[in-house]
Each structure stands twice: as structure tokens, then as C-alpha cells.
Amino acid sequence: MDNTFYFLRHAETKPDRNMPASKWVLSEEGMRAAEQLAESDIFNNVDIIISSVEEKAYQTAAPIAERLGKDIIRIWELNELDRDAGGFLEKEEFDRTVNFAMTNLDKSLNGWETGEHALERFSKVVDKIEAEYENKKILIVAHGCVINLYFAKLIGKLDEVNDRWKKTSFCSWGAVKDGKVIKDIVD
Questions:
Q1: CA 156, CA 17: separation in Å to the nearest integer?
Q2: In angstroms, rounded to a whole number, what is the distance separating the alpha carbons of residues 153 and 161?
């Protein structure tokens, strides 16, 4: 207990209409951004690095882990809101579906997981991680929707989660200690 959590949104991805969004990887710019993040001193003091099982999150965490000589624990419950059943969506339809998911947390559109379910899944695993460690600094590399849902829940602003998501860029990060946001993920 008494851990400090750093939540990092993955770097920019390379959309590929031939594979599910959960399988997308970082773009060249995303790879550069992940390397630059590792070269900065932002996460030098982390004890544990955890990422979702989605490759884009792992690729964002990898340069930091390599620089610090740490392993990466991968946990599927940290994955993004499940959107693979909906197939590839062009940007306009994707944005409309995210908007729907973030403003209707108990409903699904285009076969996506509900925001409510994703938040429950994400919150439970963060609580489990909290219970497993004591006085550690833990970096969690995950995704824009689930991190924003979690932060919005902590600050009591679930009704603003869609606006928060729109303001969160790739590689944005925030921090939580004792269930309280000490640095917001929103830029």
C-alpha cells in the first residue's frame, strides 16, 4: 500500500485497416516519442513498470524499461476499451463512437465494450496492484479512454470524461497516490 501510480498514455499509433485496433503498433513518430520519453528523467524513480497487453502500450514502455533495467509486467485488464468487434472505423466514425462510449457509459455502439465495464475492469486491476505492493512507484502504460475514465472517476467528473479524453494527447501522463489525483492526465 501507499504506492504512487504514474499513468502514461501510449505514444502515437499507426492505424491499419487490416487488423483490429488492439493489434496496432506505434508509428515512427510514436517510436521517437517513446524514446524521447525514456531519455527524459520523468520516470527515473519508478520501481515497477506495467503495461496493457496491447503492443502499442508495451512499445511505449519498452524504452523506459530498457533504460532503467526493469522488466515489464503485461496485464490484459489494462487494455483499452474493447473496440475490435466494431472493425476498422474511419476517423470521423471512430470519433463519433468514442464520443458515444464516453457519454453513454452503460451503452455500446459498433460492438464496443461499454465505458462502464471498461472502467470497472481497469479499476479492479489497479486496486489489485495497489494491494500487491507497498510503498512503490508504479508506472502503468495504458490507453486514453480507460485512463481518462479512471481519472474522471477519482475526481468525480465522469460526466466530463469525453471532454477530458479529447484533451489528452499521446504520451500524456498523470499521477495518483492514496486514491487521489496528484497530477492530472489532461494536458
A1: 36
A2: 9
Q: Residue 61: name the closest of 139, 155, 120, 147 by CA.
A: 139
Quick: pLDDT tens for 11-70.
999 999 999 999 999 999 999 999 999 999 899 999 999 999 999 999 999 999 999 999
CA distance 82 to 166: 18
Strands (E), the chain: 4-9, 13-14, 25-26, 48-51, 72-74, 137-142, 173-177, 180-183
CATH number, span 4-84+118-183? 3.40.50.1240
Long-range interactions of 178-187: CB distance < 8 A, separation 24+: 178/2, 179/154, 180/154, 181/151, 181/154, 181/155, 182/4, 184/151, 184/155, 185/7, 185/9, 185/147, 185/148, 185/151, 186/148, 186/151
Q: Where are the domains of the chain?
A: 4-84+118-183
